Amino acid sequence: MTYSSEVPIERAGIIELITTSAQDVLQMRDGAGEQLPVLGEETRLIGQGAILDSLGLVSLIVEVEQRLSDELGINLILADERAMSQKRSPFRSIGALADYICDLIAEQGAHA
Amino acid sequence: MPDQEVVLITGTRTGIGRFLAEHFVSRGALVEGCSRNPPDWSLEGYTHHCLDVADEGAVRAMFVDIQKRHGRLDVLINNAGIASMNHILLTPLATLEKIMATNLYGTFLMCREAVKLMQRHRYGRIVNLSTVAVNMRLEGEAAYAASKSAVVTFSQILAKEVAPFGITCNVVAPTPIETDLIRHVPEEKIRRIVESQAIKRAGTFEDVANVVDFFVKKESSFITGQVITLGGIL
To answer: How many domains is chain B built from?
Structure first.
């Protein structure tokens, strides 16, 4: 699926961006030599079975924001009031975060 | 990516901010500065951004620019500040809102965006400016001192939250210094403040730079959440 922005953004590309960011955060936490878990859409970011603690989640959100800006020229604040007030957290899994980012990009495109 | 230290200072058009910009450039840093209006000076190694520190969009755009040009930020000095000396009964709400916007919201936005850049390199030094008016509970400065009290508390909590990223955050609280900020304060009031200090003289830009230098040293990695008040105000 493609979302409107300055450049076409595929959901799969966003998933990859989040996954790479999560790998970087885990590597920074555990050290470069450690075996990383396999990450995918279903990977939990918060709650039971989450791969990150609360500080790790903060780092991931910041890392994703930075990569969106650096690699795609998209400037978003992910942890805004809307994200925090949703019944189902957009940070619950990599897939949910990707959906949330795609929605924000589409809205940004619509308002551009 | 530059080997030089990258330093961002707010409120660099005049006064302490300008002095600190020149100070850091002279020791080889790449300095980024900002103020609402353009400065009437320029310096090699210094880049100016015209913005309101409380404008979230403008602040974020500046950090995107810094990230693109330097790839990192090592030091943030939140110097930009405004004051309004008046009795609380004569202070309009709009004045309080303006003071809080520049002094607190501006510091908040700068710190938040700076930490995003700094945490990538697991290193950063933040210095926020307060004032002796906080410790002295100066009459006529309720709004200004309250905004700076908020900056102190904010800085101390920030210090805890960003310590795991290798980032420190400290505060320097200067005494009256000859700047635009105190241009409208009566001489008698300044004299009384100076008289209440352990060291009875006006502060200088060098006094502030000395404390800033101490806080931003690489060796100061074990010092965070601290407030150094100049002049011996207790």
So the answer is: 1
Can you name the residues that pair with B7 across neighbouring β-strands? B31, B75
pLDDT for the residue numbered A8: 60
Residue B176 pLDDT grade (very low, low, confident, very high; cuts 50, 70, 90): confident
Q: Per the domain annotation, does B1 fall within a domain? A: no
Q: Does B58 touch chain A (CB under 8 A)?
A: no
Domain ranges of chain A: 2-111
Handedness of CA B160, B162, B167, B172 (dihedral sign): negative
Q: Which residues are CB-contacts of B160 (< 8 A; sequence separation ≥ 6)?
A: B225
Partner residue facing A62 (CB), from B60, B64, B119: B119
Please count the residue pairs, one from chain A and one from chain B, whose beta carbons lie less than 8 angstroms apart: 21
**Which ipTM value was assigned to this complex?**
0.77
Predicted local confidence at residue A110, as pLDDT: 62
How many angstroms away from the CA of A2 is the closest CA of chain B? 25
Domain extent at residue B90: 6-232
Chain B CB contacts of A77 below 8 Å = 60
pLDDT at B201: 92
A111 to each of A97, A107, B67, B188, how far by Cα in Å?
Answer: 21, 6, 25, 55
Residue B88 located in a structural domain: yes
Query: What is the rounded CA–CA span in Å between residue B57 and residue A10?
Result: 26
Which ranges in chain B belong to alpha helices (H)? 15-26, 56-70, 93-100, 106-118, 132-136, 142-162, 187-196, 205-216
CATH number of the domain where residue B211 is located: 3.40.50.720
Query: Which is nearest to A14 in space by CA: A99, A83, A88, A107?
Result: A99
* B217 C-beta neighbours (distance < 10 Å), count: 11
B104-129 residue pLDDT tens: 999 999 999 999 999 989 999 999 99
Nearest Cβ partner of B116 from A28, A55, A66? A66
